[in-house]
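Posting this for the archive.
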Amino acid sequence: MDASRDRVVDVISLPGAPVSLALSPEAVWVGLKGGEVARISLATDHVIDKIRTAGADAMATTDGALWVVSTEGSLVSRVDTRRGQVVATIPVASRPVGIAAGEDSIWTANGVGTISRIDPKSNAVTETLPLSFVPDAITVAGGKVWVASFSSGILAAITPHPDAPPVGLLLEREIRWLAGDPNGVVWVCTAEGTVLAIR
């Protein structure tokens, strides 16, 4: 879709059913049911590669890397985006359901009421923090890690520094999705068809 002209300019066929999506400067990455990741070139709008991972339930990108969540396997696969190969497999707390990059770390929201911090230098979990709820999604914005519970409408902001307590918001509406932007704003899509901007 061309955002400047508000119209679809290309339709790309996928080699499987999509379950997740991520964007890097050179490609669109689509996680497929069964664990493969399709790489779509932004230059040609064609699928140019398929990469086998343990699962592709959620994804995030950093410079030169794609981080891919396998919820069932409780793993994060690190893909070298230049070579198109899995270069590390990282065990995390049980059932990671979401992933985000920021504050020099990779973060997973885990289906057992925790979040985990992965150090991209060592490809290892360095910290697991408990939550008072089970998260469904995670993002990073404004120097904080934001975690949401969709059905309960809970949104919590965690500052990744020692002795900083989490700040929780009860939005009193069901959440469908959230995303953080470079300006520190968290965007929340609700089930009732509204979008909230939170700083």
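The CA atoms of residues 35 and 62 lie 20 Å apart. The radius of gyration is 17 Å.
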